[in-house]
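We modelled the chain as a single entity of 232 amino acids. Its sequence is:
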Amino acid sequence: MQWKEHVKDWIYFSKKERLGVYIMGSLIALLWVLPTFFTSDIHPLEPLNFSIVQLDSMENILLTRDVKQASKSFKSNHAAPHPYPIGSATAMQSKEKISIIDVNIVDSASLERLPGIGEKLSARIVKYRDRLGGFIDINQLREVYGMTDSNFFKFRGRVKVEKGFTPIKIQINKASYRELRRHPYIHHLFAKSVLAYIQSHASISDLEALLAIGSLCKDEVFKVAPYLDFRL
């Protein structure tokens, strides 16, 4: 039969091929049987078996640890914040009483110790104070050349003007042009207008008479008024 011959051709093995099949089969059998000779009777999960007492003890330990960790976390998240950052300038100042200085009597060295004021700015403050005749309000410090708002806000809580302070005044009816112009609030037109009025009317009697001078701005007059003396 022809098909049998074809089958024999496909499944025919030479002597060497048959020997290879026998050896391969033997190896497979050995690999299948050998593991049974090297395994123990102990179940792989048996080392993990614990007694009921051991389980209870371990549960108590874990529970105690979790409670402690939760307590620490709660305290750290709900602790009252420190009023000032540790080591900050504010924290250091809170430990000692902050002194408030009178800007009309302190020298430049004392002003330098204020936050935001250096050597140059403190010298300018003293010079401006002398020309002004004294500060009647701490906000006048903002008029000093080089004074920024950020600098002023740093130290404004540590300076004051003594209550009842009377500044040095200009005798307006006797002052020269140079004396008038020395004051920061009196510009050239202001001084010339005052001297011209005095020359025509002999004197300026009071604030109303000064306001009557048409060339003077009302706001400028009120600004300089605390520094004027109308006595003859």
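As a brief sanity check on the tokenised model: The CA atoms of residues 73 and 178 lie 73 Å apart. The longest helix spans residues 52-78.
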